[in-house]
Amino acid sequence: MKHGNHNQVAMNMEEMKDEPAVHVMHTMGLKRRLVVCLVLTVPVLVLSQAIQTWFHYTITLPYQPFSLLGLAAVIYVYGGWPFLTGLVQELRKPSME
After folding, report:
1. I want to staple 79 with a disulfide (CB 3.0 to 4.6 A). Which of 7, 23, 37, 50 is the partner?
2. Using an 8 Å Cβ cutoff, are 37 and 68 in contact?
3. Cα(50)–Cα(13) distance, rounded to whole angstroms?
4. DSSP string of 41-75?
5. Contact (CB, 8 A) for 92 and 85
6. pLDDT per position as a tens digit, 8-41
7. Residues contacting residue 65 through CB under 8 Å, at least 6 positions apart
8. What is the pLDDT of residue 1?
């Protein structure tokens, strides 16, 4: 029975020392994305026709539907970027048979 290379195990242990810092940085990045998306969601809700109907007010801007589409697209892409890149990585892997 052949065992793995002990030097490789030692290198993996060294790499794991920095792992908590990487997780903290990743979590902070996700929190930043969440806050930015929440801030960008406020104008989307305020300009939304459904919200305006529910709360009986009217705000109209030139090209309002396109503005809402643009803001929503920014929220979707910026907020979902880590998940979208993960999706692409998973789809590129060969299927397990």
Report:
1. 37
2. no
3. 54
4. HHHHHHH-HHHHHHTT-----TTHHHHHHHHHHHH
5. no
6. 555 555 666 667 788 888 899 999 999 999 999 9
7. none
8. 45
